[in-house]
Amino acid sequence: MIRGVIIEGLSTAGKTSVFSAIKRLHSQTHNAEKTIIAISEHFSQVLHSCHGILRSMEKDEHVQLLNRHVDYIEQQYN
């Protein structure tokens, strides 16, 4: 049973299409969890706005951001 999925990739790489396909298959699974939490790429993208200036996140910053998203999903599950 899938408890959580994080799909990472560049813009226009097909993340939304993959997520839609997963949701479609998941909805057909017997006894599947009915609640889905989706976090938009606007909250996880590598290029972001810092005080109005676009900049790239360092690898460690990106990993910290992903860890916060995982923590949030785990809190919701618990």
Protein model, in words:
By secondary structure, the protein is α+β, with helices and mostly antiparallel strands. The protein has one domain. It has 2 helices and 2 strands; from the N terminus they run H-E-E-H. The chain has helices at residues 15-27, 59-77; strands at 47-50, 53-56. The longest helix is centred in the last third of the chain and has 19 residues, at 59-77. The two termini are 16 Å apart. The model has no long low-confidence stretch (mean pLDDT 76).
Helix content: 40-55%
- Mean pLDDT across all amino acids: 76
Structural class: alpha+beta
What's the alpha carbon Rg, rounded to whole Å? Answer: 15 Å
What summary fits the major beta sheet? 2 strands, antiparallel
Strand order of the largest sheet: 1-2
Run of helices and strands: HEEH
Spans with pLDDT under 50 lasting ≥5 residues? none
Q: Treating each run of at least 4 consecutive H or I residues as one helix, how many helices? A: 2
- The fraction of residues in strands falls at 5-15%
Number of domains: 1
Bulk shape? globular
The first-to-last residue Cα distance is 16 Å
The overall strand count is 2
